[in-house]
Fold this protein.
Amino acid sequence: MIDTARLDATFHALSDPTRRAILARLAAEGDVTVMDLAEPFAMSQPAISKHLKVLEKAGLVSRGRDAQRRPVHLEAQPLAEATGWLIEYRQYWQAQFGRLDDLLAELQRLETTAGKN
């Protein structure tokens, strides 16, 4: 059973390009500090921290402690749950396209038959 509140928080978090970029960076580079995460963006560290709070609320990131550093860690489970939810719709669309393929094949067969008369 899908936790709808968590799914809502995940899609809300993913609705912002900065937050998606943060997740992509964490996926590519592993754990990164907030200061390092803020570097490529034209925004302040507090602004990045606000984005991180949204990502934390969705369970998409967590913050650890490594001596003086507080690295941000990607938590992929909410992404897997969102993907599972989307896959259900993929199956729906595959069934719809299958029906359309059948209809087009039938129309083509009728045209071929009519052309032979």
Notes: The chain is about 70% helix and 5% strand.
